[in-house]
Amino acid sequence: MEIIISHQRTDFDGLAAMVAAKKLHPEAVMVFSGKTTNNVKRYMSLYKDRITVKKPSDIDYKQINRIIMVDTRVAARIGPFSDLVEENDVDVLIYDHHLGRNNPIQNAEEIIEPVGATSTMLVDKIYSQGIDMTSFEATLFALGIYEDTGCLIYESTTSEDARAVGYLLDQGANLEIVEEYIEYSLNRKQQELFNKLLDSIHQISIKGYEIDIFQAEMEEYIPDVSLLAHKLNELHDADALFVLAKYNQKLLIVGRSNDDSINVGETLKYFGGGGHNRAASATIKTSDEWELIEWQEKVLQVVKEKINPAILVEDIMSTPVETITPDTTMREADQMMLRHGHSGLVVEKDNEIVGIISRRDIDKVRNYDLLHAPVKGYMRREVVTIEPNASLKEVQEAIVEHDIGRLPVVTAEGELIGIVTRSDLLKLFYGTDDYLKNRQNLYGRSLVQVQEKRYDISDKLELIDEQLLALLKKAGRMADSLDFDLYIVGGFPRDLVLGQVNHDLDLVVEGDGIEFARELSKELGGHLDIYHEFGTAVVSLEDLKLDIATTRVEYYPQVASLPEVEHGSIQQDLFRRDFTINALAIQLNQASFGQLVDYFSGKKDLEKGLIRLLHNFSLYDDPTRIFRGFRFASRYDYNFEENTEDLFKHAIELDVIEKLSSDRLFNKLELGLKDRNPVRFISLLDEYNILSYFSPGIEWNHETEILENNVTKVLDWLHDLEIVTSFEEWVLYLIVLVHGLNETEIKDFANKFNINKNLFDRLMTSLKADKYIRILHDAEDNSAIYYLLQGLAIEDMLFLLIKDFSLEEEIKLYLEKLQWTDIEVSGEEIIALGYSPGPIFREVLDEVRKAKLNGEVETYEEEKEYLEQLLAERESE
Ligand code: CTP
């Protein structure tokens, strides 16, 4: 396990560098080595849903084999990890911008650059590796750089820091947020000016809003008046403030607003300045005829005109509110949240709010199998509510102060009319786009970043045969003529990226799939089947089949139930799928033919060999995905991404597999055994404790593993023989898997999974394998081999070989020769010698066959002669 840590009392550069390092080392887990600064604490209380940083107590130290340290290189500053970094079997990688060489950590790999902030170094690496970032991340990285360089003022600042900030602004870094969290220190002159301003405070209330105004004459120009405005803003709790600083014949006005109803950008535009809603400035050339006090009046007059009605809670709240009663079970609440995409529900009794329950609360009890319990036992009872006319500032304060994610909106009369959540606030701060990318969705929490990437893979399309390529192009043109977007999805794009051709052709149409299928089958001929209830169609041509669907959103009303379906975009259609590697699409419309559309970085995961779920409820929606995950992991020799691995374990612990019917369960096993690497598939079933769902007696041990590996060897051996056999290879893996069961267990297994007679016989025969092996070893002649093996099916014989390959000669002899041995003499010859039919016929003919098997007779004459001899011997007895 890899972890990313920074120094104790982590500041913004530390936190930002951790998050940036995580982008470079996505497998690593972020851990705080101790406390954070107050500012970071305040920030984390609002954004902890977006940045997962664990505590040292969440971590099993024994699992750690690599530590990535950022923004420090000193062991003494990393608290509980200080001993670990000195251990030989733990690799240490350091990213830091602090020079100097006191007590370096032995054997650590150090990447040290003389820049103003560690975040700068890491942003540069993210940039040069072509890794994308969200505006949220860009904002945090900018905060890191601004903090450590005093907003690019400190002497330590380098041009790289400024360039990094420039890049971050291009990536959507939000300076209003930076500003909200940054701490500054002042030089002497600034401090003097600051004191002067403080003394000048003038407070006024306009339309109910508190406005503070500060003013001072300066003898010389003092930079960064905006920093002073920021400090004043921290000290005073007004809704907005203005600083007026006059020097020479210039007046500088800086405005700060803490409330969206006061747009200081608009206000200062009047004076020829500009900025944002919450931070702006203007510089005015003045003559001396106006005193500062007059300017002050003018500013206030403009503010008065520009104040807008505030955005109130009632403007952003969600309504109506889903409520439940205290007796609703956790499971029902869970399903309701899933169905409606909420992350919390209000609990009401007799029209009164008695509690609130969140997805987090439910996730906690999931571990203990308590989903049947009523919510009243687990809900939060101290419900903090807010009034519809409260400001957003109040919402934010309540959320931070009480560490809660949602506030029911209640009127003065006590009526519940809405709910406002942390996400609603984030939506306002970061804009709709970013918000949508990270929102709670129908499938639970998204595990992936959403960013559309397109790659031209038309060169890979050359791998498929010309006829199919022509057909796909034709389908693309047909979609163009109907004005639909057409994609091929699922296994085909996944395997094509891997350079393999998959013959499953799953097409999805952004538009009307059925109409498209109708038109396409008119054009191509073939047979058309339409499934109106699923909105899908199949066009069957002579040698191939096209599955056609309309892009859709699915949601699962209950665990393991069939999904309900609504139309959606291609992005939504891909998002409902299981793993990132299966959520790729290739567009077929003419203008974009051969473009790989990748919203969830599936291509990257294919390259890295990672199986990553798209959303955290995926396995509850459809537990068969557990088996699909194992199948892909074994087929491509991939690993599970860490979060995904946890979700697999979690879902399995919660027994979701129990929800599958035994038919489906067996089918999933069969598919795994038929896939490319059945041995790893079974070992994964064992590793995740799933074998017992098939039979409590099944064991995966060293011996079974050897036998499973022998299956391939025996199959190769068989292919080298020149004989024709027909059987299903996966059955051999199954026989090996269950061969340790006793008779009763095999019968139970067969009953539970309703397996067919032939398969049942094979499993039962396997019980006698050791006996057969012994007999074969003792066989004195060919006929003994023949009479033993002739009653067995090919699978049985192969199982004997799997167990004991030293029988190879005997079985080869039987398969190639003995099984075809026939005698030419028959009852006719015996009758011709004057005998009437009776049991003796069988006995003597068998004797002749034995002689032939053992090579004692060969030709018809020899057979006949031997037959006569046998009859004569019987006569004389
Ligand atoms: N899919 C899913 N969840 C499932 C089954 C399928 O999300 N339980 C989606 C995946 O996007 C998958 C696509 O549907 O790629 C097509 O499914 P299918 O043809 O069954 O599987 P493939 O991924 O093509 O796998 P294989 O190569 O084994 O056929």
Query: Which residues sit in consecutive blocks of at least 5 with pLDDT less than 50?
Result: 430-444, 556-561
Number of strands: 29
Residues in helix, %: 40-55%
- Which outline best applies? elongated
Question: Mind telling me the C-alpha Rg?
Answer: 38 Å
CATH architecture identity of the largest domain: Alpha-Beta Complex
| Beta fraction | 15-25%
Number of discrete helical segments: 37
Please name the fourth-level CATH homologous superfamily of the largest domain. Answer: inorganic pyrophosphatase (n-terminal core)
Q: What is the typical, i.e. mean, pLDDT?
A: 88
Adjacency order of strands in the biggest sheet: 18-27-26-19-20-23-22-21
Instruction: Determine the structural class based on helices, strands and strand pairing.
Output: alpha/beta
- At the fold tier of CATH, the topology name of the largest domain is inorganic pyrophosphatase (n-terminal core)
Pfam families: CBS, DHH, PolyA_pol
Cofactor: Mg(2+)
Organism: Halanaerobacter jeridensis
EC number: 2.7.7.72, 3.1.3.-, 3.1.4.-
List its traits.
elongated, six-stranded parallel sheet, Diaminopimelate Epimerase, Chain A, domain 1, nucleotide binding, single chain, inorganic pyrophosphatase (n-terminal core), 29 strands, binds cytidine-5'-triphosphate, alpha/beta, EC 3.1.3.-, 6 domains, tRNA nucleotidyltransferase (CCA-adding enzyme), CBS domain, 37 helices, eight-stranded mixed sheet, CBS-domain, 877 residues
